[in-house]
Design a protein that fits this description.
The chain has helices at 15-25, 30-36, 41-49, 57-69, 75-83, 118-122, 129-137, 192-201, 206-216, and strands at residues 112-116, 141-149, 170-172, 177-182, 190-191, 226-234. It is of the alpha+beta class and 237 residues long. Strands 1, 2, 3, 4, 5 and 6 form a six-stranded antiparallel β-sheet that branches. Helix 7 crosses helix 8. The longest helix is centred in the N-terminal third of the chain and has 13 residues, at 57-69. The radius of gyration is 20 Å and the shape is globular.
């Protein structure tokens, strides 16, 4: 039977919520805090509403100390610091509790797809991370589609300098955004293991890892904002 949590009394915050408040006071929002502890932003909200977060108190203390005394401010660095102090919760028998998450579906042929929209993008597209990690474990290839404002791209639609080619794999939207696909089975795609390493280096933020790749390869402006992201995998022949 799942363990129930007791909502905090009115006007009282547990220590995790208090630490989250202090981090917000120095400039981090709840999505940043979620990225730091490698969890969904909804869990941070539950620090306040469902009295959760006890398992993250030590990590949050260390992070706050790093920000206020050591001057460490970048989210990926803080996430790496927090990871050292986060352990899985245990059951009453003392064994590690299973992590509850949606199964990552990759077929025997290696085919898998994950797509996220604006809300998930804002929290780092965390639901795509297990898909990429599993694809890397299986040695699969990977492709992705990004959607962002037309002015965010460095090359015009159909440019051969960009991967889609002459208006192939480009979808223009009425809201002045445009979808472009990078990689395919025909072109060989990308090594999923390489992208998994990029995601790990970005502290688990899939959005940031893809954005950095697009900037590094001179495909988008650094200030461009990804609004939708899709990842596809397959097994190389």
């Amino acid at each position: 039977m799942p363990r129930r949590t007791t909502p905090p009394a009115p006007g009282q915050l547990n220590e995790a919520a208090q630490l989250a408040d202090r981090l917000q006071a120095v400039g981090y929002n709840r999505r940043d805090i979620a990225r730091i502890i490698n969890r969904d932003a909804s869990l941070v909200s539950q620090f306040y509403t469902k009295n959760k977060g006890a398992a993250f108190v030590t990590a949050l203390r260390e992070v706050l100390d790093a920000v206020t005394t050591a001057g460490i401010i970048e989210v990926p660095e803080l996430a790496a610091l927090a990871a050292r102090h986060i352990t899985r919760r245990t059951t009453r028998s003392g064994t590690q509790a299973r992590v509850r998450h949606k199964a990552v579906l990759i077929t025997p042929t290696g085919t898998g797809t994950g797509r996220v929209g604006a809300q998930a993008i804002a929290s780092g597209s965390a639901r795509l991370r297990p898909l990429i990690a599993e694809a890397a474990r299986q040695g699969l290839r990977l492709a992705f589609t990004v959607r962002l404002g037309k002015t965010g791209y460095l090359h015009p639609s159909g440019s051969r300098t960009d991967s889609p080619g002459i208006r192939r794999d480009v979808i223009q939207r009425a809201d002045h955004t445009e979808e472009r696909s990078y990689g395919s089975a025909a072109t060989g795609g990308f090594d999923a293991a390489d992208f998994a390493r990029r995601v790990d280096a970005a502290g688990g933020d899939v959005t940031a890892a893809v954005h950095q790749w697009l900037v590094e390869t001179s495909r988008i402006h650094p200030h461009a904002h990804i609004t939708h992201l899709e990842v596809r995998t397959w097994r190389p022949r």
